[in-house]
Amino acid sequence: MSQAAANLMAQFVAKDVTRLSPELLFEALDSSDASVDATTRVLDDLVTLAEHSARAGKPKSVADILQGVIARNAKLPAGDLKTAFVLTMRRLSKPVALRSLVSLIVKNPERKQQVFEVLAQTGEDGAEVVVERVGQAPSADERQMLLEFLVELPDAVPALVRMLGDSRWFVVRNAADLLGEIKATKAEDQLVAQLRHTDDRVRRAAANALLRLGTPDAMKSVYDAMHDSSPEVRMQVAASLATRKDSKTSATIARAIDGENDGDVQLAMIAALGKVGTADAVAKLVKLAQPAGGLFRKKGSSVRVAAVQALGEARTPAAITALKELADDKDRDVRDTASRALAQAN
Predict the structure, then answer these.
(1) DSSP assignment string, 236-248
(2) CATH-assigned architecture of domain 242-346
(3) Domain ranges for the chain
(4) Whole-number Å distance between alpha carbons of 22 and 43
(5) What is the pLDDT of residues 77-129, one digit of tens each?
(6) Predicted confidence (pLDDT) at residue 30 exceeds the cutoff of 90
(7) What does the DSSP assignment read for 75-92?
(8) Which of 52, 72, 171, 210 could form a disulfide with 166 if both were Cys (CB 3.0 to 4.6 A apart)?
């Protein structure tokens, strides 16, 4: 080590590292003839300072330290010196430091690019702290900002897929939700597998995520989920499918209605059919709105009333025509519901 470097090192040897600045430590680190041992000591001090800064609420210092270590590591050839830097990066990639960094995304957006460059180098560890912060976002705007940041991280999907294997149902559910929100088609197979999860809350989340992906295989799995063992899952899937206005969806819901034994789920499916509103969906609703008989006799007027309400939701010419006829129905509930639906349609 040169005399100049030695003098620089002497400025902070045996001093409280937490009172030093990142700039001073990096100045020592950049001594061209610094030995591996001396470099390691400075790197240790940088880790100590980063951890202290994170706990003291100084995320900018944490960001500067991580960015400085990453930049210097990138220029090093393989060898003992590079190994020291790699080990330092692992120590710096702990949740306490990374969580501190994520706070800058919202509080100091001008630092967002710096944070991205750092977290992109910390792999799944960096992505996981962003995922954690998304779940804690106090507002829709902040959540959206974090989601947009998350989707750009190269390890976001691998981190979320890893979370799908967690033993805690709520962790798996949250991971499935986020994979759907960022439309992670690469995670399609893993999301399909979650439709066999033992917890129906996870299965609901997986079905919604697959619906967001919207690929042919994903949609086939969602349609299959209409026959899930849980009424809550079947009801949720029906409600989610209501956003898709195509004949495949209406045909799937219509068949499910005929085979559904749970009254509440059946009514939810009928309501979904009204939101889909295709010609065949309306035709099915018109049939269901007719006087009780056959399969639906035991349901009384509940199915008919639900079908009339769904026709009011559809508001197609065919639906309006059917409502006008049903406004004179013998069943008072059906008649009143049809009249209200017509009034709202005008």
Answers:
(1) HHHHHHTT--SHH
(2) Alpha Horseshoe (1.25)
(3) 1-92, 242-346
(4) 11
(5) 888 889 999 999 999 999 989 999 998 998 888 999 999 999 999 999 999 99
(6) no
(7) TPPSSHHHHHHHHHHHHH
(8) 171
